[in-house]
Specification:
It contains five helices and no strands. The longest helix has 12 residues. The N and C termini lie far apart (about 85 Å). By secondary structure, it is mainly alpha-helical. About 45% of the residues lie in helices and about 0% in strands. The model has no long low-confidence stretch (mean pLDDT about 80).
């Protein structure tokens, strides 16, 4: 979306901008992967180059869901250990 807002419509255009503005040479396949969907991970150096090439901020490139995650209930405490049975018992008092 950030690329389209800046009139960058193809991977070739983005690749050229990355090389010209940020000095980053990326393969066609890598640029295609960026255009193809939201990547699971991005190197910080690649993120910085994208921001430089597109003249934007990381917030313009990624939507982050900051909704708090509910923690599961704490598991119940384990029962106290029982004395072993089958051994000699104590004499009566």
């Amino acid at each position: 979306m950030a690329a389209a807002q800046r009139e960058v419509w193809t991977g070739a255009q983005l690749r050229r901008l990355l090389a010209e503005r940020a000095g980053l040479e990326m393969s066609s396949a890598s640029v295609s992967a960026l255009f193809g969907g939201e990547p699971a991970q991005v190197k910080l150096s690649t993120l910085a180059a994208l921001c430089t090439a597109l003249q934007c901020t990381p917030d313009d490139l990624f939507e982050v869901d900051a909704t708090p995650v509910e923690r599961p209930a704490a598991p119940p405490a384990p029962p106290a250990p029982r004395a072993a049975s089958g051994g000699r018992s104590m004499p009566p008092m």
